[in-house]
Amino acid sequence: MYTIEGAPWQISDKPRFAHRGLMIDTARHYESLASIRGIIDSLPYAKLNVLHWHMVDTQSFPFQSKTSPKLWDGAYSESERYTQADVASIVEYARLRGVRVIVEFDMPGHAASWCKGYPEICPSTTCTQPLNVANNATFELIDNLIGELAGDKPLFQDNFVHLGGDEVNTDCWSKTPSVAAWLKARNMSADDLAKLEAIFKKVDADGGGSLDADELKEAFGDEYGGKLMADLDEDGDGELSLEEFTTGAVAKYGDNLSKEIEAMEANCKA
């Protein structure tokens, strides 16, 4: 016989971290919908509540984009793709089990698979990543893609979209004449541009693709955040896209760009 002294006991328990995730990488290793549902079923048993879906990378692009339909030409095969209906079904399946789905599209450094459908958004056919910053089509494609993921009618219901941003080797920008000329004409170096993109993505925590005054002030403090918006918001709409943030910084700060980037990094609290 066992006795429990002082019963009844009341135990209050909760997880230490609000975000408790597991990542799957369907760019390097395609997973069937049944496999993904099986993974989701297992998460609550381990008290995990986030499925981080690393959707695309250098190796493959299995996602169906309706704004840029040739992107999934970069999939391993036609049978190793996810339609938007597939994705929506997984997001809903996870929601019903208390699991958030955060998607990741790793850019601009892990994006060679994007070139198969749209070679113009990559520096060249022999040097494919990072994405081609000298072509406006690159930014238009990214803006439209993010709109599908997290726009007015988002496919993914979470507040976050992960844009990667890691391992950006800028050698292709320096070696590709058209990109190198674009950088030189704007008094930029490949390293400066990579740093500006990294800062933008760090501050753009919700993956919305633009920064407003409140986000800048929250990330950099009221004074410096206000300064950045005043310096870079040339059209006066109160928002900065990635292109406005990078090219605006180059135009505004000129020869002092490197020093201003250092100031951004020092002031950034994101």
Strand order of the largest sheet: 1-2-3-4
CATH fold-level label of the largest domain: TIM Barrel
SSE order, one letter for each helix or strand: EHEHEHEHHHEHHEHH
Number of strands: 6
**Shape from CA axes?**
globular
- Beta content comes to 5-15%
Portion of residues in helices? 25-40%
Q: Return the CATH class of the largest domain.
A: Alpha Beta
Contiguous uncertain segments of 5+ residues: none
Query: Which structural category fits the helices and strands?
Result: alpha/beta
N- to C-terminal distance:
57 Å
CATH architectural name of the largest domain: Alpha-Beta Barrel
CATH level-4 homologous superfamily of the largest domain: Glycosidases
Sheet of most strands: 4 strands, parallel
Q: How many helical elements?
A: 10
Rg computed from alpha carbons, rounded to a whole number of angstroms? 22 Å
Regarding quaternary structure, how should these chains be classified? single chain
**Average residue-wise pLDDT:** 91
Number of domains: 2
Care to describe what's here?
Strand 2, helix 2 (84-95) and strand 3 (100-107) form a beta-alpha-beta unit. With 270 residues, the protein is an alpha/beta fold. The termini are far apart. It is globular and about 85 Å long. The chain is built from ten helices and six strands, in the order E-H-E-H-E-H-E-H-H-H-E-H-H-E-H-H. It has two domains: 19-179, Glycosidases (TIM Barrel, Alpha-Beta Barrel), CATH 3.20.20.80; 186-270, EF-hand (Recoverin, domain 1, Orthogonal Bundle). The strands form two sheets. It has a four-stranded parallel sheet with strand order 1-2-3-4.
